[in-house]
Amino acid sequence: MSTPLSWQADPQPAVAAPGSWSFPEPALSTLGNGIELVCFDLPGQHVVSAHLVLDTPLNGEDRDLEGVTTIAARTLDEGTRTHPGEEFAELLETEGAGFGIEVSLSGFQAVLDVPASRLERAFELFAEAITQPQISDADVDRHVQIRLAQIEQAYANSAQLASMAFRESVFDPASRASRMSGGEAASVARVDGAAARRHHAEQVGPAGASLVLAGDFGGVDPHALAERWFGGWSNDAQVRTPHEQTSPGPRRHVVLDRPGAVQADVRFGGFGIDRTDPRWPDASVATYAMGGAFLSRLNAVLREEKGYTYGVRMSLTPLRAGGSFAIGGSFRTDVVADAVRLAGELADVADRPFTAAEVVDAVTYSTGISPLRYATADGVADQAAVNRLVGLGDDYVTRNLAQLREVTPESATQAYSSLVDVDALTLVVVGDAAVIADPLRELGFTDLEVVHPEA
Q: Domain named Peptidase M16 N-terminal: which ranges (predicted)?
């Protein structure tokens, strides 16, 4: 009979605290026409990322044509005056380049990702798409139809409908932030080729623009490259629009009726702060502890203990000025009222301030993930572009990380309490009103509205 083998596990290595790390520092210069060049030389990053950041806030759109920015931007890689139609896309593909656009309330970005060995020709095409777009009637009409289909799909999706209704409720109805960035059906349907071309001619130009380049340039002088293709760009017709100061709407409690729905989507929150607010680092840590981690306070009770949901989160959504915060999740219809009750109780930290362990966990996560988030040229360029778009400063990431390390349980609790007044929150629920409404009224939401979207 053989003797049993003895086995002993090796001791686990100690996990060290995250090392010191800072966001790369860019080289700054200015092109002949005033475009600010933000350049990150990243050896070994052989896919170069370029972001042209355009100062075109969406509150500059005509109210009757909201969505025209998105429609016009989506046509940029579908033909230029020099290379119309599919010819342009084929040339871009030949260079192995990817072209994209990102539209937000603060403006929009045109994005190019290309192997460094193909940078010069792809960059020429990139500039051509911005400065000489074709914006044909046929392309505009097609993108209008695509956008209308996306809007219809969004209204059919309970989670998206809850987020849209929450935005409409939290922000002042007169604010552009209260409506979809890509425009709503009535305004999108009015966009035609002439409107899109006119919008591009009036809004897109070098004034207020920044160009972010990141990667291993392989011996190419990035300033000379940018000057050659963008430095001579001018647009005397460009109109500068001041950025809107977003304001809150009145508190609202509403159920959007979905008869027969077996689950309901909940958004419970209010008007928030942006990243320039001195409370931002503390509030970020607090909301992570409340609803950002898997074993956060909300998820530990509503998912793990009660089994009411597959997951619930609390998040901060900053704008250039102001923002919003919300507890959000999908819950079984029969437990919605109790889930909202518990969420309200958990969200009130007056008698249960944040702990040192919660703060350490949140700070460790936020500081530890940053080197991974910015490990590629695209990650660096994307963050640098956002910094420019919303006026954060090129050193924002490094400053924010330093401020996060200074957060204490007391400062996190104070910042959170100054932002979250549980008795003043907006509640939006998308679900079966026949089951949900009365229990919510009994809970104290006596002014609850029931809206029938199909009506």
A: 43-167
Q: Per residue in 20-71, pLDDT tens?
A: 799 999 999 999 999 999 999 999 999 999 999 999 999 999 999 999 999 9
Q: How far apart are the first and last CA of the chain?
A: 81
pTM for this prediction: 0.92
- CA–CA dist 31, 35 (Å, integer): 5
- How far apart CA 449 and CA 254 sit, in angstroms, is 5
Same fold, 27-230 and 253-451: yes
CATH number of 253-451: 3.30.830.10
**Domain spanning 27-230, CATH class:** alpha beta
Name which of 230, 175, 172, 210 is nearest 40 in CA terms.
210
Say if CB 130 and CB 206 are below 8 A apart. Answer: no
CA distances for 305 relative to 86, 198, 339, 369, angstroms: 56, 56, 12, 28
- Decide: 172 and 161 in contact? Cβ < 8 Å: no
Q: How far is CA 425 from the centre of its chain?
A: 22
Q: What is the pLDDT of residues 259-295, one digit of tens each?
A: 999 999 999 999 999 999 999 999 999 999 999 999 9
Map 384-407 to HEC letters: HHHHHHCCCCCCHHHHHHHHHCCC
Q: How many CB atoms are closer than 10 A to CB 441?
A: 15
Sequence-separated (6 or more) residues with CB below 8 Å from residue 450: 254, 255, 257, 433, 437
Q: What span, in angstroms and rounded, lies between the C-alpha atoms of 27 and 369?
A: 25
pLDDT in tens, 142-192: 999 999 999 999 999 999 999 999 999 999 999 999 999 999 999 999 999
pLDDT at 455 over 50: no
